[in-house]
Batch of 4 targets.
Target 1
Amino acid sequence: MVWRLVYKNDGKVISLNETNGKTHTIHNIFDGISQEECFNKIDELQLTYYTTSGDTETMILFSGGTRTILEQE
């Protein structure tokens, strides 16, 4: 199992999932051994990461190992 980070050239994260399968995409892929390694890659590449739960969309900003969570409804 690896943590697969799929992201677009415009800096947006498409998905971050634990997987052992193939991903067919035209976007960039980074495989990490842990979720934390993928978070570090998001920080390094200055990507924008959104996650959704119900009606709430959450944007997580990564900067220098610090995560800032901004909830938007």
Note: The mean pLDDT is 90.
Target 2
Amino acid sequence: MAEFYDDSKFNLKQDWYWSKVIGKRDELQYQENEEEMSEVLMEYLELDDLADFTEEHLAQCEELVRYLETPYSEGGAGYEMETSAHFYALWYTVSQWVEQWHEGSWQDYYG
């Protein structure tokens, strides 16, 4: 069996590749968060289908992110990506939408 840890420092039951085990689950959690936040954004924008997305929706998304990341002391919600996995997923989803919209590849992804 492969050695993934230092036997002289740790007395584990058996060799497990914990970085892979945890990393895979983190990746699945990130994907799930992105899917959930995409659904939340669609509900917020009152969209049934991303094919109906417009530049007005894009502006609403950007304004929402500005509000969420603006410090509470400055009138925003004060979220930080480092402390909220769901805010990070929302931010990432919006940033992908913005990028795809400006690149002209929106239709390729969402029809």
Note: The radius of gyration is 20 Å.
Target 3
Amino acid sequence: MRTLDPTYLNEVANHPEVRPWLKGEGAVDLTPLVSNPQNIALQFEGGGWVLRSLGACQYEVHSMFRPEVRGFKVRDSLKEALEYVFLQTDAVKLVTQLPQGNLGARTLARIAGFRLWFGEYHVLHIEDWIQASDACLQAGQQFHEKLEAISPSHAAGAALLMLKTNPAKAVWHFNQWAAVCFAPLLNLVSISPLMVECGKTLHGPDLEAI
């Protein structure tokens, strides 16, 4: 899914029905964006997304798919892409420009949960995505079953899903929610091996007590 090789996305971006929606003139070359590890390029069957880092955990999203790729296939790719971006990277805010007439991009943005920010720009915050995520809700129930002091919630579930691959973000996100709810805070004790502390108890990557 994630790639540093621009070859395929360049082909999609220069498709005659895709190129007019991208800025500039002439052939598009995504090489500087895709090959830069500070950005996020996600490749799927028929297209993908390029997320340009704006700093401060914000990314500008550019979507591109061949016209023959539509429907559930793109929606499934979108679901997988958002889970990757919010759970496995530092991203907390996504912005995208939606020109009038680009119905494909506007439909994808609506499905993803983007809302109007200003002008043609729309925004999606991690908290909004988490609250709409069935996977986060299910994981929140698992979190509660492992640590009964933590009530089941989308926020706790997101932290559990982040924990193994993105532990620092998991603890940071969880503690923002916990501070408001007066729930016990997590402390990241060790990354390798992964250990977090809740109250006076150490827990491993599956929240098993150590």
Note: The helical segments are 7-13, 31-34, 72-88, 103-112, 126-131, 134-146, 154-163, 167-181.
Target 4
Amino acid sequence: MSKTEQRISEGKKATLESVATDLNNGDWGALYYATEEQVTSLIDSGRISEDFYSRHQDYQEEMRVMMNQAMAEFA
């Protein structure tokens, strides 16, 4: 389990450190939990590639679609 997923499962929020560690280790699942501000901050500080900004947007859209599907299924 990634650092970010571990934090989320414990009821905690994703941190800059957990998101950066996960992304740099190739675990892009952290993009589901990271905020736009966190991604921007990590890019601006050079801790992750600027390519992650567009990937973050893709993951957030995917999450919105999954949430809408779940809501429709269980409504």
Note: Helices lie at 3-9, 16-24, 36-44, 51-74.
